[in-house]
Amino acid sequence: GMITTLSGGGASLGIDVRDGFMLAVEQSGNTDIEVVIEDDQRKPEMAVQIADKMIQSEKVDVLTGIIWSNLAMAVVPSATAQGKFYLSPNAGPSALAGKGCHANYFNVAWQNDALHEAAGAHATAEGYQNSFILAPNYPAGQDALTGYKRTFEGELSGELFTKLGQTDYAAEIAQIRASDADSVFFFLPGGMGISFLKQFADNGIDLPVVGPAFSFDQGILQAVGDAALGVRNTSQWGKDLDNETNAAFVASFEEKYGRLPSLYASQGFDTANLLLSAMASADVSDQEAFRAALKAADFDSTRGDFAFGSNNHPVQDIYVREVIKEGDVYTNRTLGVTLTDHGDVHAADCAL
Amino acid sequence: MSPVLIAEQVLNGVQSGVVLFLMAAGLTLVFGVMGLINLAHGSLFMVGAFAAAGVASATGSFLLGLVAALAAAAAAGALVEVLVLRRLYAREHLDQVLATFALILIFSEGVRWVFGSFPLFLDIPTALSGTVSLPGGILYSRYRLALIATGLVVALGLYLLIAHTRIGMQVRAGASDREMIAALGVDIGRLYTVVFALGAALAGLAGALVGAIQSVQVGMGEPVLILAFVVIVIGGIGSIKGAFIGALLVGLTDTLGRLFLPPLFALFMDSSAAATVGSSLASMSIYVLMAIVLVLKPSGLFGART
Amino acid sequence: MSLLTLAHGSAFYGATQALFDVSLDIEQGEVLALMGRNGMGKSTTVKSICRMLPLASGELRFNGRDIRTLASHKVARLGVGLVPEGRRCFRTLSVRENLQATARPGDWSQNSVTDLFPRLGERLGQSAASLSGGEQQMLAIARALMTNPQLLILDEATEGLAPLVRQEIWAVVARLKQRTGLAIIVVDKSLKELSNIADRAVVLERGTSVWAGAMNDLDEQIVGRYLGV
Amino acid sequence: MKRAWVANVALICMLPVVAIWASMADEPFIITLATKVAILALAGVGLNMALGQGGLVSLGHAAFFGIGGYAMGILASHAQSYTPLLEWPMLIEGSNSMPVIWLLALVSSGLAALVIGALSLRTNGVYFIMITLAFGQMFYYFSISWPAYGGEDGLAIYMRNGFPGLNTLVPLHFFGLAFAVLLVALALATLIGRSPFGLALNAARQSSERVETAGIRPYRLQLTVFVLSGMVTGLAGALFADLNRFVSPSMFSWQTSGEIMVFVILGGVARLCGPLAGAALFILLEQLLGGISDYWHIFLGALLLLIILFARGGVMGLIAGPGERAHV
Amino acid sequence: MSEVILAAVGISKRFDALQASRDISLDLRRGEIHALIGPNGAGKSTLIQQIAGRLKPDAGRIVLEGRDVTALDTAERARLGIARTFQVSALAMEDTALQNVVLGVLGARGGAYRMWGNALARGSLRDRAEQAVARVGLTNMATTRASALSHGGRRQLEIAVALALDPKAFVMDEPMAGLGTSGSHDLTELLSGLRDEAPVLMVEHDMDAVFALADRISVLVSGEIIATGTVDEIRANSAVRRAYLGEEEGA
Ligand SMILES: Nc1ncnc2c1ncn2[C@@H]1O[C@H](COP(=O)(O)OP(=O)(O)OP(=O)(O)O)[C@@H](O)[C@H]1O
Ligand SMILES: Nc1ncnc2c1ncn2[C@@H]1O[C@H](COP(=O)(O)OP(=O)(O)OP(=O)(O)O)[C@@H](O)[C@H]1O
Ligand SMILES: [Mg+2]
Ligand SMILES: [Mg+2]
């Protein structure tokens, strides 16, 4: 069962996850797997209802697909409590990595903090002393700033929370200009990031900007345009990562859907492959065995090495990428690894 | 906090107020003047932005994009008025609310159907990009200055149109008694279509102008719509002047609230918590403003009715 | 040729029939009294003429032109000026705006109507909603005159007016009558005033015109029977 | 009138029949849907009191729905983590007993309605619509950014709260509970509708001057019904949260207000079972259309438009005939 | 001289530049019909509204049976016994005539917040309402909706609602407006009987009705009372003729 966002705002992410996932399923040629896909409209209530439906009526064994942390929080605990497996292709709220972890919950993307921590590490490595940091005022935003601060060793010249869904950042940009910052870190997913980058670029402030990959994703970059060029961002995946699986994935995705794959597509693809690998070695009805098979993570990931930590969250390398223009298309080039075999701090709170 | 920063933030407040005004003006026209509550006004904003982005990327001209935004929003507005809304003037507000709610659904998904789910790109025209320095050492975005100027011109033009022309009088007369104005020789049906299209065009213009500095995506209209409601409530329904003052008030309150509240809380809290709490309250500041205005003047600052 | 002809008109409010068979006609320069007790269909007839209510059947001509299906505003532009029952001034507009909004060029202008009703001249800037009842009535008449009609329809135009003003209005109607061209349909409850001013009368009873003729021929018997006096 | 009565009874009976059938056919999801219909209808019944009887077009009822939801979320999360809700001025513990939660939901949404109503009712017409909408948004933004109870993430409650004598985890039991509450609310609405209060309120909707010159203050009548209406919707919010075992700010969103209003209007304003018919149809459409196309909202929108333009009086208007604006 | 029931004492009211009421004093005595006449825009409705509580006077007091009610709002004054009717009927148009009247009884007796029981159930509430309906001769229209009543019917209904309030005084603004000759005639009779119930303060332009009904007449011109007296006194008053009646009516 796949619950994901296919309509309304944010649908592009869900569509990428779905397309990536289905690509993997198709390539495997495995006919034992039956995928039911439903649209949650990005509404938690809807996601819960669909989960109920999938579990109660369609009797699915494994759930996946949710994009947003808040929807995951609504669905995952009750689904795992009912003995279903949940594989997260995106969204890794800290609650589910720490105290709320569950043996049947596997995150194939990242724990929410990971990319922010990588950004902090990158900023430190670049020798920035004074960062101005901002994020929307909601849990993921608060986690983002915490994550950055965890690894950033310089000072903060400012810390701002913006309104979720805010589209005008003139006021914040003015404050950045007025501050003594030597770098800017921001976490503004979706349209917020587009707005911020465009406005930031237009304001002639010449400060390096770092952010997690979400605002520099393939789907979004085209809407940001030149304003994004040169910006560093952190990601566990890049389309130019040098491994066979990835090259094949990028090529086949582009061929099938006529667009470059995004981070989300890669995550969907990996999630499907993880599931397929587990199905190959165990039967779902045997919970123990299936769980172990998942945990082994015996599949070829598009990001290269991939393993699960004690709390079933990834332990993986995180890269720094830079936005470039390839012909007419804006995309990312991977510069290097910033965190190696990175797990997350919440694992300590997890009883598994 | 330096005076320059404050001055710059005031400008920002004015600028966001001006954009709100473009939205609110169309709404208040349609509301106050035609007695119609139009929740789909935000959709017209979105239509404008998408039309601008689509045409600008096809032709490479921002100006053509603006023209397209005006035309598309006006056309969408006129179409909606002719097909749906004109049957609802005589109905209760309730029906209008629901019908325009339905229109939002249709517009949002329709636009997504045509343009896909990914945000579109619309950039500031090169002539207006970058900053200018203003007296007092303020660096300010050229484009935003242009926005302010556009808003002021539109405000003035609208005010004159509604308050001082015969068309304006006829439209307002139609609001108070549609049947009667027709019986005195005015083609009120056509007039309303025109007014509605005008309101829509303003929303489309706002969408296009804002689209250049924000992301052009489905659902971009509703948050602005709700702010525009607040503006109208504060300013008084049907009053262009009220919409203007209300919009500036809301723009300034919002911007300055975001600037001052977090440091205010930082005086007695640690900075992270202050940032959270301060910005939580800042996001509610305009609603508090609205509540205060209401307590003092239930029909808004410039509203006619009690 | 008559200026306006309504023949065998019938009309409905939703499912209920209000007019059954109404006929009337009026010449240029003539004053026609439309009479009948409360609820007999006078205002409905007026609305049908102004096309505010569709005629279900019958014939309606203005200056020989068939206007049965013409839009309300087009009828007005042909030269029908209405002072509706209940005044219906545009409440949110000022007096001046009420006069200007629908004005059409002709002999009547803001100056000439404020000469006619000096009180309106004093209140030009005030909103119509705050006018006294009588002032609103004056405004409604002035507004109709400002459209410079060929046919003026006064539906209970003296209602709520002080006796002096009422007399003034009748005097105005008399003056208007003398000006060539303007035809007037008057609905009013004052029989006495109507008989002074009207040339002819049409009497309505339950949505049907039951009597038509010269005002002088309106005898006691008909008055008693149809007008309840 | 008779026809309306028959339609009401048939509609009310339909829901438990569907639920029981689903239970026998082992289709728990259908019971869940039926429960959802009952709960959303309850929210609609609440709104309909203000909207249908009071003429108060509130586009901010999501505020009460959300408050009810958070009453559940907050109490239950404290119970879940064994931390007291308040230590001062007195010790208040969390709770996972539905009656306690309902009480809190009623009281807190009633208080909120009192404040919002007291301010909003100073105005009328379009102002009222917009102000209630804005107040709803205020709660929305507050709930998103206030970190204590999960902010945008919301609060997940892993176990459905209990009700003495029932096993709420059994879908049919929970359905029965929600349905019983709905019945009580419907009965209450009927009672109020024909009472002196209902008469005065209906008159106030039509002419506030009339009521005033009869010696009654329309403001108070309307405030009273607004509070009642908020309470019923708040209770529905608490149940809805329990249905999903989850609350989040989206319960406060203006789309929620819009949807509650859609139920009411779709079903027929001021008709006793309007909200029920509306909610049932809405859920049905959502299930049917959602399967047809990703863009099903277009169809939903078009259908709504058709109903508004051509089927005045909503579904109940079609079924029960135009008839009287039923004194609910 | 009979007892004063309702009095306006030194009322003044200004709208911007316009002095709508200038130090107006007026009383309404038991058993009388007191007509208030005057040119259009003289300030009659403005005075009525101040008496009923819709407008607050800038200066002066309104006294009901010796009690100063100036500070009270419309609803409170109505409960104390000032029953107002409107020039343009203000009724609950979707409700039946009887329901409209029951509202009046509720206002007078309290109980508008009772949320149980049937408002129209047999009992004292309904009896009282039916009496009032009968008084104005609407009994066979009791279950007709107000919107379906004729103009005259609505006028009667307004009076029935006022009657249901069990008022100390009636205050009426142009009750005859819009009624035809025969309608005015019927209403004249109804009003005439009303004065035994409670005195009536009535604004009216229909001089036939005024002269037939009024015990006393006050004439308001430009916000000032220029004369108060019996019908004959007023007819004979040359200032009143000049300002209002004109020669013909006065004669
Ligand atoms: N809007 C309406 N809807 C339904 N019926 C109406 C409407 N207006 C008038 N009627 C009915 O139509 C009939 C004729 O009404 P009309 O207003 O034409 O009478 P009238 O002769 O002008 O009376 P009045 O002297 O009271 O003005 C009446 O029975 C009235 O009740
Ligand atoms: N709210 C207001 N603002 C300004 N002027 C007002 C307002 N209300 C009334 N007036 C003016 O006060 C004067 C008195 O009005 P009022 O309605 O009392 O007259 P009236 O004596 O009842 O006249 P009529 O007989 O024509 O009804 C009028 O000139 C009117 O225009
Ligand atoms: Mg009439
Ligand atoms: Mg008056």
What features would you describe in this structure?
The complex is a heteropentamer of chains A (352), B (306), C (229), D (328) and E (251). Chain B has 306 residues and is mostly helical. Chain B contains 11 helices and 2 strands. In chain B, helix 2 crosses helix 9 (221-235) and helix 3 runs antiparallel to helix 8 (188-211). In chain C, helix 3 packs parallel to helix 6. Helices cover 34% and strands 27% of the residues of chain C. The model of chain D is unreliable at 324-328 (pLDDT under 50). The chains are: A alpha/beta (352), B mainly alpha (306), C alpha/beta (229), D mainly alpha (328), E alpha/beta (251). Chains A and B meet through helix 1, strand 7, helix 7, helix 8 and helix 9 of A and helix 1, helix 4, helix 10 and helix 11 of B.
Record the SSE blueprint.
The complex is a heteropentamer of chains A (352), B (306), C (229), D (328) and E (251).
Chain A: E1 2-4, H1 11-28, E2 37-39, H2 44-56, E3 62-64, H3 69-81, E4 85-88, H4 94-97, E5 105-107, H5 114-126, E6 130-136, H6 139-151, E7 155-162, H7 170-178, E8 183-186, H8 191-202, E9 209-212, H9 218-224, E10 232-235, H10 244-257, H11 263-281, H12 287-296, E11 307-308, E12 314-326, E13 329-342
Parallel strand pairs in A: 1-2, 3-4, 4-5, 6-7, 6-8, 8-9, 9-10
Antiparallel strand pairs in A: 10-12, 11-12, 12-13
Chain B: H1 3-34, H2 41-59, H3 62-83, H4 93-115, E1 131-134, E2 138-141, H5 142-164, H6 166-176, H7 178-183, H8 188-211, H9 221-235, H10 240-266, H11 271-296
Antiparallel strand pairs in B: 1-2
Helix pairs in contact in B: 1-5, 1-8, 1-9, 1-10, 2-3, 2-4, 2-8, 2-9, 3-8, 5-6, 6-8, 9-10, 9-11, 10-11
Chain D: H1 2-24, H2 28-53, H3 62-81, H4 98-120, H5 125-145, E1 155-156, H6 171-194, H7 196-206, H8 208-213, H9 218-244, E2 246-247, H10 254-267, H11 274-292, H12 296-310, H13 314-320
Antiparallel strand pairs in D: 1-2
Helix pairs in contact in D: 1-2, 1-6, 2-6, 2-9, 2-10, 2-11, 3-4, 3-5, 3-9, 4-9, 6-7, 7-9, 10-11, 10-13, 11-12
The structure holds adenosine-5'-triphosphate (2 copies) and magnesium ion (MG) (2 copies).
Descriptive tags:
heteropentamer, B: 306 residues, mainly alpha, two-stranded antiparallel ribbon, 2 strands, 75% helix, 3% strand, globular, E: 251 residues, alpha/beta, Rossmann fold, six-stranded mixed beta sheet, four-stranded antiparallel beta sheet, 38% helix, 25% strand, binds adenosine-5'-triphosphate, binds magnesium ion
Low-confidence stretches of chain D: 324-328
The percentage helix of chain A is: 40-55%
Distance between the termini of chain D: 12 Å
The two chains with the largest interface, and their residue counts, are: A-B, 43 and 52 residues
Share in helix of chain D: over 70%
Small-molecule binders: adenosine-5'-triphosphate, magnesium ion
The total count of helices of chain A amounts to 12
Order of helices and strands of chain A: EHEHEHEHEHEHEHEHEHEHHHEEE
Give the number of DSSP strands of chain D: 2
Tell me the radius of gyration of chain A: 19 Å
Strand line-up of the largest beta sheet of chain D: 1-2
Low-confidence stretches of chain A: none
Query: Count of helical segments of chain D?
Result: 13
- Domain count of chain D: 1
Shape of chain A: globular
Q: What does the main sheet of chain A amount to?
A: 8 strands, mixed
How many E-type strands of chain A? 13
* Structural class label of chain D: mainly alpha
